[in-house]
Amino acid sequence: MAKLKRVFMYLFLSAAAVISIFPFIWMIVSSTNRSVDVTRGKLLPGAYLFENLQKVFDTVDLVPALLNSAKISLITTALSLLIASLAGYGFEIFRTKVKDRIFSILLLSMMIPFAALMVPLYRMFGSISQTMPFIGIDTISAVILPSVTTAFLIFFFRQSTKMFPKDMLEAGRIDGLSELGVFFRIYMPTMKTTYAAASIITFMSSWNNYLWPLVVLQSPEKRTIPLLISNLGSSYTPDYGVIMTVILIATLPTAIVFFLMQKHFVAGMTGSVK
Amino acid sequence: MNIKSKTNVVSWSFISIAVLMICVFYFYPMVQALILSFKSGTGTNLNFVGIDNYQRLLTDTTFLAALKNTFLYLIIQVPIMIILAMFISVLLNDKNLKLKGFFRTAIFLPAVTSLVAYSVIFKYLFGADGLINTALMNLHLITTPIQWITDPFWAKITIIIAITWRWTGYNMIFYLSALQNIDNSIYEAARIDGASSSRQFFSITVPLLKPIILFTSITSTIGTLQLFDEVMNITKGGPGNATMTLSQYIYNLSFKYTPDFGYAATVSYAIVILIVIFSILQFKLAGDKNG
């Protein structure tokens, strides 16, 4: 009986693992095959990876999209971390009743669905366009600004700050550091792992963001990776080998970040729940 | 006094940027959307129409179809995924399990993929002449290909399979980290008292996991109510409105059809109201089980 249970356990987990991995394997295998082979259901690696890569560089604007995505994700991550950690620190270290109340109001913004913000934000950036076209519709700033501050990240930093040894701050003040000096010279270096976890989740969600860039970016040369893939995917005569190669290249940065920093990633996800 | 008020100013400056940004990019647009929801017209040419938009919701077949689909995903997909995530995490938490790290990473892997990328992959896998149909036909499980994308019933199933694939591992991680915090001696005591493993699961594990169950069901509910990327890239809401979601409908109303921002804002408030109702409901439900 106990043995049967073990067998079932391994079978079930293996099935779950295979189902989870299979689409990745299919993506990798398909990027090495011609489109006709993919449609025939070929599941073995072929010899067409370089041909597909050549076709990608000839027919798809992959490099500009990669650069756009990288630029947006890096700027978003840097700004997000700075704003959210300052706030999380401020709410916890300089705690007052009023600030606690403001904090709970900020948390309410987590319940707001993006679909509800999309239309007013689009109109907002539309009117900004008239006076300041450099941050209006169809600019990188318009993509970055609305997603740069999230209550989730402020909450995350506040939770982590609870564990921070307050004596260290006092020591810094006695040494004559200003409040900002204490934050940048003492808090930031000590909280490296928190920043690492926060940067991974922020980078990934920014890299994969789809709806808002779809709404606000209009010129093809400003397209980000998700917009490019979506566009290729809706083609009526898809070249499967080429599309799978593009998806493979686009997934690599997040996959590498994930495998290098798996622990931080999980810590970032679960840290705020505990 | 002087020093005190100075530190006070400094302390506020730490939180000011964040507060300002959230007000500008969350609360102000929500107020704007509320005002918009009482207006109608095309493009920038909007007039006050009172509660006309809200009345229109009640007879709008696309809205009702989107609402019905969203509820279907909520009632079927969310429980399946949560039970699956919990079940897998309990298996993975077994002390004697070999290859634990491999299983955990593999099952979590879908959670790091881009929604658009996996949607496109699923669209091809589930195509009429896609790999899933080819495999099922070769195994003689079906004789004619299933129209996974173009049949109203199967299209919904495809979306449910896709979301479950993407999010089960994500939710599993929360259960796993909670399980690892449960003191093993509780189970040992139960075993000595002769509690079977299913009894242990329902009397110890489930009650201790309650906060996580609440957290994952609320986040999954909010996620489902906002479902967009998958539907947009797998079925485009079709066939007809068979897989249309509220977010996709708002997108269509604002950017695909002749823009009616006023009515789109009304539909978006429907989502806001649903999120509030569901969150209160789930908190109540969790609270009642406490007693």
TrEMBL record, chain A:
Example GO BP: transmembrane transport
Residues in ABC transmembrane type-1 domain copies: 66-261
Keyword Cell membrane: yes
Transmembrane segments: 7-29, 72-91, 103-122, 134-157, 194-212, 240-261
Signal sequence range: none
UniProt keyword terms in alphabetical order: Cell membrane, Membrane, Transmembrane, Transmembrane helix, Transport
Primary location class: membrane
Compartments in which it is found: Cell membrane
This protein's GO CC annotations: plasma membrane
Membrane topology: Multi-pass membrane protein
Keyword Kinase: no
UniProt xrefs under SUPFAM superfamilies: MetI-like
Family per record: Belongs to the binding-protein-dependent transport system permease family.
PANTHER family: ABC TRANSPORTER PERMEASE PROTEIN MG189-RELATED-RELATED, ARABINOOLIGOSACCHARIDES TRANSPORT SYSTEM PERMEASE PROTEIN ARAQ
Protein name per the record: Lactose ABC transporter permease
From TrEMBL, chain B:
Record keywords, A-Z: Cell membrane, Membrane, Transmembrane, Transmembrane helix, Transport
Subcellular location: Cell membrane
Ranges where the ABC transmembrane type-1 domain occurs: 67-282
GO biological process: transmembrane transport
Chief location bin: membrane
Official protein name in the record: Lactose ABC transporter permease
SUPFAM superfamilies: MetI-like
Transmembrane segments: 9-28, 71-93, 105-126, 208-228, 261-281
PANTHER family, alphabetized: ABC TRANSPORTER PERMEASE PROTEIN (PTHR30193), INNER MEMBRANE ABC TRANSPORTER PERMEASE PROTEIN YCJO (PTHR30193:SF37)
Entry annotated with the keyword Zinc: no
Gene Ontology CC terms, in alphabetical order: plasma membrane
Organism whose genome encodes this protein: Paenibacillus oryzae
Presence of keyword Repeat: no
InterPro entries tied to this protein: ABC_transporter_permease, MetI-like, MetI-like_sf
Pfam name, any one: BPD_transp_1
Membrane topology: Multi-pass membrane protein
Family: Belongs to the binding-protein-dependent transport system permease family.
